[in-house]
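Justification of computing resources. Each target in the renewal requires a structure prediction run like the one illustrated here; the chain below, 535 residues long, is used simply to show the kind of job we budget for.
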Amino acid sequence: MLCLDILRTMVVFSQMAQKKDDLAIELIDINKSFGNVRANKEVNLSVKKGKIHGIVGENGAGKSTLMSILYGFYHADSGIIKVNGKQVKINDSAAAISLGIGMVHQHFMLVGRFTVLENIMLGSEAGFFLKKGQEKTIKELIRLEKEYELQVDINSKIQDLPVGLQQRVEILKTLYKKANILILDEPTAVLTPQETKHLFRILKELRDQGKTIIIITHKLQEVMEITDEVSVMRLGEVVEEVATKDTNESHLVELMVGRKVERQIPLNISNIGNTLMDVRDLNVMGLNKQLAIKDVSFELREGEIVGIAGVSGNGQTELLEAITGIVPIESGRVIIKNHYHLTPENRIMPKKMRQIGVAHIPEDRFKRAIIRDFSAADTAILGYHRDPKFCNKSIMQTTAIKKFTKKLMRKYDVRPTNPNLKSSSFSGGNQQKLVIGREIDHNPDILIVGQPTRGVDIGAIEFIHQKLISLIDQGKSILLVSTELEEVLALSDRILVMFEGRIVSELSRQEATEKKVGKMMAGINPFKEKMRRAS
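Resulting structure tokens:
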């Protein structure tokens, strides 16, 4: 009997040892605070080798902070990190890279004016004479591109590449540095559906070849599609770790927010009024000196949301920037509130646009809406800083600004509620809520909004949609651009489909279906296709 007990004990210990050997990453009792804010609280996380592991949670749940500790950007206040079963200290990203850990950040760490090759070699130049190192790098890149389907022109400048290809460069860079563990922070936040599918093929190929992938994401349908296991974080803690096959989206949502979430977008009952914006025969030049917008015409009326659907890069960005006065128009006109005329000869600048009741939530918050080193209080008044309640005789009213910011943060659920923190210290979703709050709180008649829920968690998406609907209930107008087709279809009263800089179709909410709009976005006219088949 005693021998049998000893044998059983040996089997248990053997199984435990085998389980530990299967772990690529083990984080034990990780704590991290920023001032009075505890970002991570006694976090325990295990990631198996050769698996795709998802980390989900609300904005500010501590996901990015935890992965930044693993990559050496932050130091944990306490806790243990194990890589491949060995306890390690990761003091900086160089230490992480030496341990085979690579990270692709939500906002890419690339030098725009450098070529793909120069970016990948940066920090790994192999001595003063670059030619030998260059030849070695090119040879290795050709192998990696072929092995993982990561083709990209290595002589192209980063600034000339679309976002999807820039992400490929980031992945190539981590693989070139011999990473076996890849961390991707919101990898699909800026990708088209086609680019997302290609990325997932690459990640599955990497996994099948033994790489370990960690994905931080808000998109639960993607979690269910791509991951093997998922950890859920809430308020800085891991509340559950589960095999993806043993869970579902509804369960994950409840774990993330600690309550049931109504995922159905509220249907706004539109009371359509007068035309507030009339866009006529608009033409706008792109950065390549070619027309990005071609003869675009539409109206925006009181009490309606007009959604623009299209694959990213088909003129949506140029359209939004033209009608908000950021870039000049080549020809045509925009008539605002039947009084203000935006023409090639009469450019209405963004400052004036705000004064006449046109607010803008840009697609790229870091390019157009936030200065990372500014405090949250500065971001909360950016563009409205000349308002007398914020600025009196050229003197900024610091007390009033901070009081306004705190009120705004509470109203729009921005966490943490600290106006003094740098804007860069907030998670992407909380940055977005701060920008949305700033623009909506000034009660515009027309809201031009690009990608309102990009990089935002499920609870915040629900909140943002409610705020947009509340504007419409007041008789305001919204022009909405989103790469989330489900969002456009659910929120919009009318849908304009853009392809190659033109509006190729206009559909009512009742006419539009995902299949029909999706075909138009790809340049296929389903009506002509139906007629051709009939003939």
